[in-house]
Specification:
This protein is an all-alpha fold. Helices cover 52% and strands 0% of the residues. It is built from 8 helices and no strands.
């Protein structure tokens, strides 16, 4: 009987060890960091991915690319719509506030800053704004510009310039 219990103990210990778990219950052996779980017995042995959004079936991204499924676009805030940079976009594009808001919603930009940069760069380089925004649904702004025939150095300089224009417009509005 003692041998059966000892054998059962050894087998279960080896199984836990083989899964990367030590005697601590759910943490990997040697992990000194405290567990962030609530300590419920149901958490023992649960994968770390439980409760996190699943990325199964989504395309992986490589450097310089943006997965349209991997992120949600942030909605425009009233402060952004009333900002100096938004007014600058209205002047550069000749579009109304509503038109710009619709353009933002259909763009590939993850956030307002990317959107402003993309529109400003496209206007400064006389590129089709819609083509630039469409490219950003799957690629970064720099990669999109490169694919549209803009030299890398020029693209980088124009993106930097657009960011400076956005900051200056916002400062101008607030003063």
């Amino acid at each position: 009987m003692k041998r059966a219990i000892l054998a059962l103990f050894l087998v279960s210990s080896l199984a836990a060890f083989g899964q990367g778990k030590g005697a601590s219950g759910g943490r990997p052996a040697g992990a000194g960091a405290p567990s962030h779980s609530m300590g419920h017995s149901t958490d023992v042995g649960r994968p770390a991915e439980v409760g996190k959004p699943s990325t199964a079936g989504q395309p992986s991204t490589s450097p310089g690319t943006v997965s349209s499924q991997a992120h949600q676009q942030r909605a425009l805030t009233d402060a952004q719509i009333n900002s100096g940079s938004f007014k600058m976009l209205q002047e550069k594009t000749g579009m109304s506030s509503e038109q710009l808001q619709q353009l933002y919603a259909s763009s590939g930009a993850r956030n307002y800053g990317q959107f402003v940069s993309a529109v400003v760069v496209s206007k400064n380089l006389n590129l089709d704004t819609n083509a630039v925004l469409e490219g950003m649904k799957t690629k970064s702004l720099g990669k999109t510009l490169k694919d549209l025939g803009v030299a890398e150095q020029t693209a980088n300089a124009e993106i930097k310039k657009a960011n400076q224009e956005m900051k200056a417009a916002n400062r101008k509005k607030s003063s």
